[in-house]
Automatic annotation (TrEMBL):
Belongs to the peptidase A1 family. Residues 1-19 form the signal peptide. The active site is at 108, 300. Disulfide bonds join 121-125. Residues 90-411 form the Peptidase A1 domain. SUPFAM superfamilies: Acid proteases (SSF50630). Pfam families: Asp. This is Peptidase A1 domain-containing protein. GO terms for biological process: proteolysis. The keyword Membrane applies.
């Protein structure tokens, strides 16, 4: 019998955003970003999967304030780890500075800070492209320390501000972390940092996120972001880098979905992208779900799997004959017979029901007959939602994150989108333009100068104001 451990998958979704796509003609502010998907280059042993599973369970619990009392709650910082050895992750590009330099970053709806590795980085940055503040004529040192704590490490440095560009949009004086200390394994080339897409209230830096500045100042045609993620899970010929889909700011790509987008309002606004989980069906059996805040689920592009309360996860696998709870590194995870096609569907609020492909429910084949499930037991903090829905779910829908009214919407994938699953192709490259099509301003005012250690405690007072900027449409 295999020992299986809780899968706290916070494998970061790395969305590919063509930094500074060439300006479109006219005034339509819609920008499409290609996504890269990183996949395991070779098969892993049962032991390797176990180590990965244990590591990522701890990471996700740290991200959402669960686990031991030493782990920080999410409100004190962003907690993410990149693991290239388990399931796939998605990354994209932004451009920083003058002249602009492109960097691959994690694009994560479960966090709200932007940070990149600095050229003076002394640990954890070997082989990783780094940002050189002295090479940018528009960089300003904010003279403030910055630190993000993760379940098994951290990134630390200082806060700075500079011109940041993505997909033809730009924000001048965007505040971000410039990190010279990164825990080993936190970054793997070519990824240089993280771009958070959640709300300002959960940002460690207290800076207004890049996306929020743009949407609040009317830089987009529509106040929303759209994601499409490809599937290469369990594809035998998968390469370490594969085409990953697209991320769109300010609009949606109608070629990638059919029908209407089914929006559900956020029950709680201003922090994570949260929806109430209303139904969960496994193998045709309805699973009992708690109501109220106990049903809240974070829709997190920066997480690979689906984590939830232990009693509900156990009930899910009780519907799958031959499933077994894991132990050791696999504690909190479950295995099941590989010849079983697991049918799972979920709905949020009063919205539609969405199916999760059996291919996504099957995280990995541990032996010829034993597979590892993608739903795992997760313990989050008191201020974090009980459920985390990551890429295991999001690969099955076209997802839209709408600022106003605050909501998350899903739509059925089109045949065009589905045909891209498992199909190798050329990878998109970063495109940097000489001029931004939209310009907004994010100013950090009266930033306090405090030591790095202070950032591990809650209650640091940061004051960041977004000054009204001129929106220029070309």
């Amino acid at each position: 019998m295999l020992s299986v451990l809780p899968l706290s998958l916070t494998v970061l979704l790395y969305v590919s955003t063509n930094a500074l796509v060439a300006p479109l003609e006219g005034l339509s502010e819609r920008r499409t970003i290609q996504l890269n998907r990183r996949s395991p280059p070779s098969e892993r042993s049962v032991e390797d999967w176990g180590a990965w599973a244990k590591h990522h369970k701890e990471v996700l619990e740290a991200k959402y304030g669960g686990g031991s009392s030493q782990q920080q709650k999410r409100g004190s910082g962003t907690n993410l780890l990149v693991n290239q050895g388990a399931d796939s992750s998605y990354f994209g590009t932004i451009a920083i500075g003058t002249p602009p330099v492109a960097f691959d970053v994690v694009l994560d709806t479960g966090s709200a800070d932007l940070w990149v590795a600095d050229t003076s980085c002394v640990t954890g940055c070997t082989g990783v492209p780094t940002f050189n503040p002295s090479s940018s004529s528009t960089f300003t040192n904010q003279s403030s320390s910055f630190q993000i704590t993760y379940g098994s490490g951290q990134a630390a440095g200082s806060l700075g501000s500079d011109l940041v560009q993505m997909a033809g949009f730009s924000v001048s004086n965007q505040v971000f972390g410039v990190c010279d200390e990164v825990s080993d394994g936190l970054l793997t080339s070519p990824v240089s940092g993280l771009l958070g897409l959640a709300f300002e209230t959960i940002a460690t830096s207290k800076a207004t996120p890049f996306w929020q500045t743009l949407v609040a100042q009317g830089a987009w045609d529509e106040p929303l972001m759209g994601f499409y993620l490809t599937r290469f899970n369990n594809v035998s010929s998968v390469q370490s880098l594969e085409p990953g889909g697209s991320f769109i700011m300010g609009s949606t790509d109608t070629s990638l979905y059919t029908g209407n987008i089914d929006f559900v309002d956020l029950p709680v606004t201003g922090s994570y992208w949260i929806l109430p989980l209303s139904t969960l069906t496994v193998q045709g059996t309805s699973i009992s779900i708690a109501s109220g805040s106990s049903s809240y689920a974070a829709i997190d592009t920066g997480t690979t799997l689906v984590g939830g309360p232990s009693d509900v996860i156990a009930e899910i696998y009780a519907q799958i004959p031959g499933s077994q709870a894991g132990s050791g590194n696999y504690q909190g995870y479950y295995t099941y017979p590989c010849d079983t096609s697991v049918q799972v569907s979920v709905s949020f609020g009063n919205g539609s029901s969405w199916s999760i492909s059996p291919s996504d429910f099957q995280l990995s084949k541990l032996t010829q007959n034993t597979c590892l499930g993608a739903f795992f037991q997760l313990s989050t903090g008191s201020s974090a939602p009980n459920w985390i829905f990551g890429d295991t779910f999001l690969k099955n829908v076209y997802s839209v994150f709408r600022y106003n009214p605050a909501s998350v919407g899903f739509a059925q994938l089109s045949s065009t989108a589905i045909k891209q699953n498992g199909v190798a192709g050329s990878l998109p490259s970063a495109t940097i333009g000489s001029a931004a099509t939209v310009s907004a301003t994010s100013k950090g005012l009266s930033l306090l100068n405090v030591p790095k250690s202070s950032f591990t405690a809650m209650g640091i007072c940061w004051i960041l104001s977004v000054l009204a900027g001129t929106v220029l449409l070309y």
